[in-house]
Amino acid sequence: MISSRLTIALDIMGGDNGPHVTLPAAVKALQQNSNLFVILCGDENIIGDMLGELDPDLTSRIEIQHCSEHVAMDELPSHALRNKKDSSMRRALERVECGDADACVSAGNTGALLAMAYHVLKTISGIDRPALVSALPTEGHHKLFLLDLGANVNCDSETLFQYAVMGSVLAEEVTGVSFPRVALLNVGEEQIKGNDQVKFTAKLLQDAPGINYTGFVEGNDIFTNCADVVVTDGFVGNIALKACEGLAKLVLEEAKRVSNQNLMTKILAKIALPLLRKIYLRVNPDQYNGASLIGLRGIVVKSHGNASSDAFLYAIKEALQEVHRQVPQKIKDKIESVLMERS
Amino acid sequence: MISSRLTIALDIMGGDNGPHVTLPAAVKALQQNSNLFVILCGDENIIGDMLGELDPDLTSRIEIQHCSEHVAMDELPSHALRNKKDSSMRRALERVECGDADACVSAGNTGALLAMAYHVLKTISGIDRPALVSALPTEGHHKLFLLDLGANVNCDSETLFQYAVMGSVLAEEVTGVSFPRVALLNVGEEQIKGNDQVKFTAKLLQDAPGINYTGFVEGNDIFTNCADVVVTDGFVGNIALKACEGLAKLVLEEAKRVSNQNLMTKILAKIALPLLRKIYLRVNPDQYNGASLIGLRGIVVKSHGNASSDAFLYAIKEALQEVHRQVPQKIKDKIESVLMERS
Q1: DSSP letter (8 states) at residue B279
Q2: SS (HEC) of B202-260
Q3: pLDDT of residue A1
Q4: Are A181 and A228 in contact (CB under 8 A)?
């Protein structure tokens, strides 16, 4: 599919299970994409031991960059930013910044990744703050991009407006939908509903050229085919997505619990559980799909901290897609044209 | 259980299905509570026709208050407040205000109910704005009170502080937990996390006498036994709860969809669906439990717009509980003592 050589820098030490998850995913990605080259950032001894003997074709497409440190999952972002100059996370980002890699993937500490990516890569001109975005599954296997999922918890209307522009570009480039529908998350669909921030953002979007703004949507709409992009601030987006994660977990636990009640429900639950787990995976987008950090002068994909190898592989594929679609360049073009027409 | 006579005013015309849902629930409530008296607010012809012949004991505990209007489900709250003076919703609230009824239950238009209740009943001294609160189910069948669910979308820290006090009283009175754990909803548990509003509220709560403030919790924690009360503003609370509603619906739809794939999944899904529906009901608190409007000088319980008769009956029972526990008086006492100790 993708013809020219692509290079992805991987934070091998990031995530709850580090190289146990990231390395098998890297190897699989190389096997599946003959034009892929990977830079494995992490402890060279661990990586060397765990990789073992590989096919020479794969070995020729691997560079190991030794890093003496890694960012802990519970480390303060400010501490990581100041002190972890030789961490696998930071080095992976730097390889994108200097042009060696086309994108970076990490399953590490989200706050630290946000802080480091912002510091190392900088934002695209016209974009104040990066956003975390993920594609949620909706009815009919449609994709809905929700942002921000927690990169920026103090958003003003101008930032939300920029998020709408970025989301629109991402949806168009990744899913191929032309002129994607962009909606604002609110407590009701009527124009009079909502807080001041969302009402003012609506005004900005109504007047914006080149954005297909369709109005307000409610919380329950994010799992329907109500829009292609739903914009909210990082505080609301993070809490809404995590609440869904909590509910999905409760449903699974509840099914397990009732399975202990009597023989009949035990049998029923045993049969229902695999189905529930399958559904749970599909509706738990954060865990399954990873999230993209957009608005930066480089591509960064965040895989979930407790991602499986399959999920980390999916995050690598997502990064490849974004490279192929030149998402940062497209965002730059779009924001320039929107800002020019507004002024 | 409850010995003295209790009177509940019911908005019979409210909700998607009006008297078809509310009347059977009213009759059941009378049958189950021999000391209950109900004021049925609505169209007397419809109510008379639908009630039909009843046991004289029940008839003697029913008053029908004819109302010439009702508030439409999609009516603007400001319009309803100005124009629907003889609506079933408004009359029910007025019967609480003048002391004829101990509480009011409505499944009608939430925005209109909020506006009318605020206007007719007024807030308790020391409380700026009422809040919508509902008990969520969590692991181990524990109850967690989440507020605000959308009464107030522009909250400042002082309002969130008052919500914490009210939630604490409600949890203590309804569930009997002494010194209930009160947490603030945030994007992380560390003190440095969150937006300015939540950080400042945390400071107010840390210093508050008589409130068992336990810190920040994340979105996924609201379905665990992390706290007895979780406080957030109405914008976040509404969106988080509705997102969960949307996810629960998607899970059900997904189970139905896979049931059409092949014979085996068809059988599996057929077996799993009743279990899923049962779980769905339990984890869809808004629909099942209704929500209380607290902070007012009277008790108002909001049942879901598309509540079933069972759900509306549950809302009546919730109102009876709050009457029995004298929740508004307890909130008044608590906020007075907290404010006195603070000053």
Answers
A1: H
A2: HHHHHCCCCCEEEEEECHHHHHCCCCCEEECCHHHHHHHHHHHHHHHHHHHHHHHHHCC
A3: 44
A4: yes
Distance from CA of A310 to the nearest CA of B (A): 22
What is the predicted ipTM? 0.87
Nearest to B242 among A139, A220, A242 (CB): A220
Residue A65: pLDDT band with limits 50, 70, 90: very high
Indicate the residue among A236, A262, A285 that finishes a domain. Answer: A285
Q: Does B246 contact A219 at a Cβ distance shorter than 8 Å?
A: yes
Residue of B nearest to A259 (CA): B275
Residue in chain A closest to B218 (alpha carbons) equals A239
| Parent domain of A67 | 1-127+295-343
Is residue A209 very low, low, confident or very high in pLDDT (cuts 50, 70, 90)? Answer: confident
**Residue at B143 is within a domain:** no
Q: Which domain CATH number covers A160? A: 3.40.718.10
- CA–CA min distance B38, chain A (Å): 32
Instruction: Give A-chain residues touching B142 at CB under 8 angstroms.
Output: none
Model confidence at B182: pLDDT above 50? yes
Query: Where residue B247 falls among pLDDT bands split at 50, 70, 90?
Result: confident
**A200 shares a domain with A72:** no
Q: Does a structural domain hold residue A290?
A: no
Please report whether residue B122 resides in a domain. yes
Both A4 and A107 in one domain: the answer is yes
If asked whether residues A252 and A141 sit together in one domain, one would say: yes
Rounded (10°) angle between helices B234-258 and B263-282: 160
When divided into structural domains, chain B yields a total of 1
**Chain B residues touching residue A246 (CB < 8 angstroms):** 219-224
Q: What is the pLDDT of residue B1?
A: 44
B304-319 confidence digits (pLDDT tens): 888 889 989 999 999 9
| Angle, vertex CA B255, rays to CA B252 and CA B258, nearest 5 | 150
Cis peptide before B128 (omega within 30 of 0): no
Does residue A178 sit in the same domain as residue A218? yes
> Does residue B301 surpass a pLDDT of 80?
yes
Residues A180 and A266 in one domain: yes
Of B154, B238, B282, the CB nearest to A196: B154
- Mean pLDDT across chain A, nearest whole number? 89
Residue B121 lies in a domain: yes
Same-domain pairing of A104 and A208? no
Q: Looking at the structure, do residues A323 and A209 belong to the same domain, yes or no? A: no
Contact between residue B166 and residue B132 where contact means Cβ atoms under 8 Å apart: no
Does B70 score more than 90 pLDDT?
Answer: yes
CA-based nearest residue in chain A for residue B137: A250
B244, B255, B268: residue with CB nearest A244: B244
End residue of a domain, out of A285, A311, A333: A285
- Mutation site for B-interface testing, chosen from A153, A192, A304 by largest number of B Cβ within 10 Å: A153
Other CB atoms within 10 Å distance of the CB of residue A20:
12
Report H helices in A122-258. Answer: 157-175, 196-206, 234-258
